[in-house]
Amino acid sequence: MTSHASPQSASKPLISDDTRQLASYIVAAGLQQTPEDVLEKARHHLLDTLAAMVSGSRLRAGLLATQYVMSMSGRGPCNIAGTRLQTSAVDAALANGMMAHGDETDDSHLGGRFHPGCGIVPCVLAAAQLKPANGLALLRALALGYDIGTRFNLSLGPRKLYAGGHSTHSVGPLFGGAAAAASLLQFNEEQVRYVLAYTVQQASGVQCWSRDEHHVEKAFDFGGMPARNAMASATMVNSGFTGVPDALAGPNNFFSAFSTDPRTEELITELGSRFEIRQATIKKWCVGSPIQGAIDAVLALMKDHQLTPSQVQKLVIELPDDRCQLVNNRNMPNINVQHLVALTLVDGGLNFE
User: Fold this and answer.
1) Which of 95, 147, 237, 280 has the highest local Cβ count within 10 Å?
2) Which of these, 47, 172, 159, lies nearest to 120 by C-alpha position?
3) How far, in Å, CA of 23 to CA of 33, rounded?
4) HEC states along 52-84?
5) pLDDT tens per residue across span 118-139
6) Helices and strands in the chain: count of H runs, count of E runs
């Protein structure tokens, strides 16, 4: 039997309108007019994440990451935060990402259900050292990363992704970091689509990180791994790698593999007008995001009513059901709400007794 190629096989590869629009936006983001309040937010989140890196560089996750990357590759053009060391772009992103999430001081995005800065900022810093960029381009790339990272999580449906055991905390910063790096490296639309293809191949993250007692695997999943993988995608394409023209559509695509109810329109909804960095928040306390409000509430009660630890017999904490389990009696002290609220009560009480 003789087989014949279909007429379509000799034509240009099919690329969905959504993918074209997404890639086109990433290409143009470095030159588009960005609202001043968005740039100001980008400055705040850049500085906040840099501070988190410096703090994390002295903690177990940061120390192990630095030791690991220096033993693997050694010298390179990119800085490791909190040190005088330099290494490759990929390894610097890994180390800086783990540092940034090492003590839970990094920022958060409730709607996207991830920590953007710890994965995206390391990519911005590494890409800017590979291809020097001015401050405005860096801030625009950072805002772009928050936009794309959030939209990828929304396109998968964060609740359903979580229900399946995947980690939105790994997916969002991965795609956000890849987009930011592609912008700073000034890729064309075809190169951006290749970056997306290699990023799709590296999408990963499983919620077993919640059982980590030492905040090392969690730091890897939230910051180090997505930053490393995003920079791997960008640097491979920068070296000439080619790939699937559209990994977001067609047979066996990203969405068919990861989501039972994909909402692909979320990728491009209000691009250029709804800037997700506006919705990102900077933490007041170095604890898991759902615990921020609980600590504030306890301190408010203590201040307003002169409440002291000796007066408390029982404390009932109520949190949203979709966030409660993230912090309920966890092994890691800084995401255990019972431990942290009790500690706040005792520590805060010293100021009132």
Assistant:
1) 95
2) 172
3) 18
4) HHHHHCCCHHHHHHHHHHHHHCCCCCEECCCCC
5) 999 999 999 999 999 999 999 9
6) 15, 2
